[in-house]
Amino acid sequence: MDKDKNCSVAPPPQQHADGGGKKRVCYYYDPRISYVDYGEKHEMVPHRVAMTHGLVKSYGLLDLMDRLRVAPATKEDLLLAHSEDYLNLLRDLTPAAYDNDEATRKRAAEHRLGSVPDEGGSGCLISDNPVIEDLWDYCLRYAGGSLAAARALASGRYEIAINWSGGMHHACEDKASGFCYVNDIVVAIKALLVGRFERVLYVDIDAHHGDGVENAFLKESRVMTVSFHQYDGKKFFPRTGDVKDVGATEAMYRTLNVPLDPGTGDVRYHKLFQPIMERVMDVFRPDAVVLQCGADSLAGDRIAGLGLSVRGHGKCVRFLCGYDLPLLLLGGGGYTINHVASCWCYETAVAIGKEIPDDIPHHEYDKYYQSQGYKLHYHEADRSNGKAQTKHMAEVKQRVMEHLDQLSDLMAAAPCTQPADKEPSHAIVIDGDALAVDRLLRGEDPVERLYRRCGEVDLTEFLMDLGEKELMKRRKVDLD
């Protein structure tokens, strides 16, 4: 016990109400992700990331960040989060193979890919995770963005890293779930742990429970997961995330769930979010934070029923920015795509520390914002249910705070594993300069340089790319 008494413990991080001032921010955008099509009737529209990028660019925010070079993940990277058998299936699975081979469909269904029975017991077939064109490439690209952003933080060069195409928090080790094929968040957190960070805090403000991330770290004492989500325990996907779920074994109480009622707007949300997160920071004392900014918790979402405004959602980002800890910002859900783009653009500005006007500038996607009056901060009616909701919130807050008290006692009794003034002994040195676009050699291939312009893709280039794909398909048919 004498050793424990002499072990240096880091003081709790301090919160700055103004968001902590200007930050060194890097930003990841791969235009190829916006070409992905889940299907005509599917709620997930990856093109929302291109809309976000267009809005970020129109506000002049790109010039205030370093842009990370496009770097798709590899299969070896994804093995941090998934089984090899599952990844091999994702790599080999195509719509043609799925449509024409019964054995392939059966194997896909075992991993919740394609048309499968609804786990909610409705008896219907659902296709949340369809077998789409270029599926493997899509997985590598959005996971690669989160991995590159995590490495940028681990390099020590940046204080905030952003990948709005990431945040796929439902995917599990051996299956797809909730529109998510691979879990880029788990990959990123594990990269942070082998980088320079001893403890990583994961916070999820998506409308849906961050079940895939929680399950991956249930027994990991160096990771704490905190999820604020809509919950009824019956129908609302994924039907998990009860306040009583707190982790397991040596990681007990490092899992926190904050279930919310539909219609939980800004005021009620932050009466929970801020005191809970202040206590989490005081007790867990993380070295880095990952924030999943799922925008389906916004008012007016097509699927979920929470009621946050763009400012209310962004307030979570501003609050965590105020701790001056390395912060990874990821996307997630969000199915009213103009609202999603408004939110993530605003949160990019929050991360940078810049105020931007409410009037949306003229740009290639501005027609999508007509329904919100071309304003960044649109308004929706309050759908809260008053006193009943307030009583439930008080009960949830009390339970969560009790869990944090339990965690505080456990951590006080446990031996300190790392002196406060040293990096982990396993830390890997990462060159931050090599990650950024603007630090690449000027003599690189001009086609590659054009591709790395990250988002300056006009309609002509988009149609040319589609035409090239169609031509390749026809050639393949002719050869066959």
Automatic annotation (TrEMBL):
Gene Ontology MF annotations: histone deacetylase activity, hydrolytic mechanism; metal ion binding
SUPFAM superfamilies assigned: Arginase/deacetylase (SSF52768)
EC number: 3.5.1.98
Binding site for substrate: D128, G178, Y335
Residue ranges constituting the Histone deacetylase domain according to the UniProt record: 42-349
Catalytic activity: N(6)-acetyl-L-lysyl-[histone] + H2O = L-lysyl-[histone] + acetate
One annotated Gene Ontology cellular component of this protein: nucleus
Family note: Belongs to the histone deacetylase family. HD Type 1 subfamily.
A Pfam family matched in the record: Hist_deacetyl
Alphabetical list of PANTHER family matching this protein: HISTONE DEACETYLASE, HISTONE DEACETYLASE HDAC1-RELATED
Protein name: Histone deacetylase
Signal peptide span: none
Keyword Nucleus among UniProt keywords: yes
Main location: nucleus
Positions annotated to bind a divalent metal cation: D206, H208, D296
Annotated region described as Disordered, given as residue ranges: 1-21
Native species: Dichanthelium oligosanthes
